[in-house]
């Protein structure tokens, strides 16, 4: 049996709470502007919490310091070609675009269900998303 370590449980709880707050917010906050501000704050808080839960890197994983102006053995691109960098940028752009499309579909589904008279339409989906996100965070590395 796999048991989560001491960092996975608080991380899973935080991820689940984040997902619940994120996806249930339209049921509680109807103003798009207010939701945008709240989600921005939630994102900043989530990143800060993630850093706090991740802890410090071990010393052997920290980059070596070098003299200012000294030539680095590795460039900042780690020897990647322009084509590889362009492909990475395209992949990042496609990922962001895909996320936006999925988020809009999730929101539209919640709004459709709200229009059908379902109470807590966004919250019901949020509970499922929170359970899945929390479970995924418990999977060991």
Task: Give your account of this protein's structure.
With 141 residues, the protein is mainly α. It has one domain (8-55, 81-138). The protein has helices at 8-28, 32-54, 82-115, 121-138. The protein is globular. The protein starts with 7 loop residues before the first helix and ends with a helix.
Ordered list of secondary-structure elements with their pairings:
Elements (H helix, E strand, L loop, with lengths): L7 H21 L3 H23 L27 H34 L5 H18 L3
Helix pairs in contact: 1-2, 1-4
Task: Please provide a brief summary of the model.
This protein is mostly helical. The protein is built from 4 helices and no strands.
How far the N terminus sits from the C terminus, by CA atoms, comes to: 15 Å
Q: Number of DSSP strands?
A: 0
List unreliable stretches of 5+ residues. Answer: none
What structural category characterises the helix and strand content?
mainly alpha
Helical content class: 55-70%
Order of helices and strands: HHHH
- As for the number of domains, it is 1
| Cα Rg | 20 Å
Q: Describe the main β-sheet briefly.
A: none
Shape: globular
Instruction: Tell me the fraction of residues in β-strands, as a range.
Output: under 5%
Question: For the residues shown, what is the average pLDDT?
Answer: 84
- Count of helical stretches: 4
